[in-house]
Structure formats: C-alpha cells, structure tokens
Amino acid sequence: MKMRRIGAVVAIAVCASGLAGCGSSGGDADAAQVGPAATERVRAFLEDPPAGFTVGDAAPPETVTFVGAVDGIDAYIGIVTRGDEVEVYVCDGTTAQASIATWMKGSFSGADLEVASPVAAIEATRGGDQIDGTVTVDGVSHAFTAAPDAFPADVWESKSVTPDGWARTGWIVFADGTQRGATKVGADISTTAVLDPLSTEAPLPDASIALPADVVPFAGPKRTTKIKPPTTAQRCATLLENFNFFLDQMGKDGATDTEILEAMNAAELALDNGRALGCSWAQNITS
C-alpha cells in the first residue's frame, strides 16, 4: 500500500460581501452567478475594490514536524504544526510490542499547547526551534523535548481497510531511522513492520485489503518522485473490489459462522464508505 502525506495544502475561499450573488440562494438566481460572467465580476471587483477592502495572502502556513523521545515510557512523540494548528501522535510500538498509539488534534494558544485523548494528555510550550512539555499517561507525567530534524525524521501514516474495520498505522521516525510505530483498528493496538522511509510502499496490517493511498511523510524535504493521491474513481473502484471480495468470503465453502459474520461486517463497511464517497455502485445497492 502506498503512503500518504497529511500535511496537504489547504485552499481558502473568501466571500466578500461586496460581490454580487455571494451567499445567495435560489435556483435561477444562483445559476446567473456562475460561469464566465461571474469570473468577470470577481475580476472587476478585485481590480477596483471598495475602500478598506484588502486581499490577503491565502497561502497556507508552513508545515513543520517536531519529533522527540518521551522519558520513562520508551515512547516517541511527533507534533505536526501548521501555524497554530497541530496534530500529535504518541507511540511506543516496536516490532515486539505496542501499547500506546494515540492521535490528538488541537491548537496553540500563544506559545502553549494542551491536547488530550482518552489515553494521554499533552501540556507543552513552543519556544524557538523546539517544543518542551509533558505526556501524562495513567496519571504519571513524562517529560519530552521535540524538534525538527533531517529526513527521514517525520510522522508517517497509512490507512487500510481490514475485516475488522479501518486500520490506521502511524510511525514516528528519527533522522537516524529509529522509529516507533503501531496499527490501530478501533481501540485495538497491534505491532507493525519497520517502515522504510525511502520506499513508497507501507507495510500492511495482517489480512488487510488496502485502499490506494499515498504514504509519504507529513512534512519534510521534497521527494524526487511525486506520488499522486488516489482519485475518487480509484477509491470507488477499490472499495467495490473490497465489497465483492468480502461477498465471496461469505459464500466460501467451509466458512464458519464467525468468518461469515466478519466478512458480512467488512462488506457493509465497504458499502457504507462507498456511499459516503458518492460511488455510483454503492448508491445503486439498496438494503
């Protein structure tokens, strides 16, 4: 399965109150506000905007990843920042064991960060080129210092669908290649293979049916080969393959009641995700 970068560029659309039709509703009125004529109105507005109106820089903030070790629990922490927005991953998984793999989202308030999950709580302060703080697990606080580092230092992620549901695999990798990684399916945590950051392929959880995905780091130096993310059509096609695969498993000779139930649940999951994605094959199936 290919790996995917989370630190994607975000486009921002701004609706100015002075634009004709902005925020309007109603069939023909809406139709009149789209197409080349609307584009000309926008261009004319921007060339001669009302007094006090300014066009800001809509470029997204730079994505910076901080990685570090957590004292006392043999875990690593990865903090992906985009301006004040952050995503945090704490993991202690090796190929032998994994007990902590938790993802959190939040934002800085000034220089301070507080985020939490059912498993861990983070309190940290950003200063200069590093973030210092504590990870609290089971009521005990453990110190950490995280900082950017050279490739392949980053937080990496891969997603796949398994008979038990969606699997999310994450790795925190240091510049020397040492890493912590684990796979989560629901609340269940399991070990995963070592990630090779120079490969575009991610190790798959056992017995998984992978969705096409781009697995590259959240942030980091530019890759020499650009890997395009899957299109909606590709994702729909893969979900259909998964759906048919699990239907075949339900009818397999010698399948136990448990195997049939697991295959049925997995087929329903593929169908639900197909409908959520707007796949025509899924919308044409009534249940």
Task: Quickly list its features.
alpha+beta, Porin, 3 domains, four-stranded antiparallel β-sheet, globular, disordered N terminus
Number of domains: 3
Strand order of the largest sheet: 1-2-3-4
Helix count equals 5
| CATH architecture term of the largest domain | Beta Barrel
- Assign an overall shape: globular
* Strand-pairing-aware structural class: alpha+beta
Report the count of strand segments: 12
Q: How are helices and strands ordered from N to C? A: HHEEEEEEEEEEEEHHH
Q: What percentage of the residues does DSSP assign to strands (E)?
A: 25-35%
* Amount of helix: 10-25%
Cα(first) to Cα(last) distance is 31 Å
Mean pLDDT: 74
Report the CATH topology name of the largest domain: Porin
Largest sheet: 4 strands, antiparallel
Contiguous runs where pLDDT drops below 50 for at least 5 residues: 1-38, 204-227
Rg to the nearest angstrom? 23 Å
CATH class bucket of the largest domain: Mainly Beta
Describe the structure.
By secondary structure, this protein is of the alpha+beta class. It has three domains: 1-12 and 61-230, Beta Barrel (Porin), CATH 2.40.160; 17-52; 232-283. It is built from five helices and twelve strands. The protein has helices at 27-31, 36-47, 232-250, 257-277, 280-283; strands spanning 63-70, 75-82, 85-91, 101-107, 112-116, 120-127, 130-137, 140-146, 154-162, 165-173, 179-185, 188-190. It has a four-stranded antiparallel beta sheet with strand order 1-2-3-4, with no helix packed on it. A four-stranded antiparallel beta sheet has the order 5-6-7-8, with no helix packed on it. A four-stranded antiparallel beta sheet has the order 9-10-11-12. Helix 3 packs antiparallel against helix 4.
